[in-house]
Design goal:
Radius of gyration: 20 Å
Number of strands: 5
Helix content: 10-25%
Strand order of the largest sheet: 1-2-3-4-5
Strand content: 15-25%
Structural class: alpha+beta
Largest sheet: 5 strands, antiparallel
Shape: elongated
Order of helices and strands: HEEEEEH
Oligomer: single chain
């Protein structure tokens, strides 16, 4: 009589979950997006949910590189903060633990002098 051993337990692992924005996070981001569209600064956006990062990309026109990327990286939660705003050239403009404070760097674009 032959006995077959079951496969090792690591073979039964499920694939890692994707990182995504929560509804409350999206409402904060889309609120800013709506104000910037009304001001004529932004025209399109894209959302990507990857394995380690969720990205909200903002475009001036549809067929170009994003002006800004708002990223959520949960692995950086304990270090620099899981939210970041990244410019067109790849430079990190702001990073932190609270999404509203990180997005303030983009809200400055709305403030204009009134003559």
């Amino acid at each position: 009589m032959t006995f077959h051993n079951p496969p090792p337990s690591n073979m039964r692992e499920t694939p890692p979950a994707q990182v995504a924005f929560h509804r409350t996070e999206l409402s904060v981001i889309l609120s800013l997006y709506g104000r910037m569209v009304a001001a004529g600064e932004w025209r399109d956006y894209g959302i990507s949910s990857l394995r380690e990062v969720a990205v909200f990309s903002v475009f001036r026109r549809t067929a170009e590189n994003p002006l800004y990327r708002i990223e959520k990286r949960p692995k950086l939660r304990g270090r620099q903060g899981m939210y970041a705003v990244i410019g067109m050239d790849g430079q990190i403009l702001r990073r932190g633990h609270d999404l509203k404070t990180v997005l303030r760097v983009l809200e400055r674009k709305l403030i204009r002098a009134v003559e």
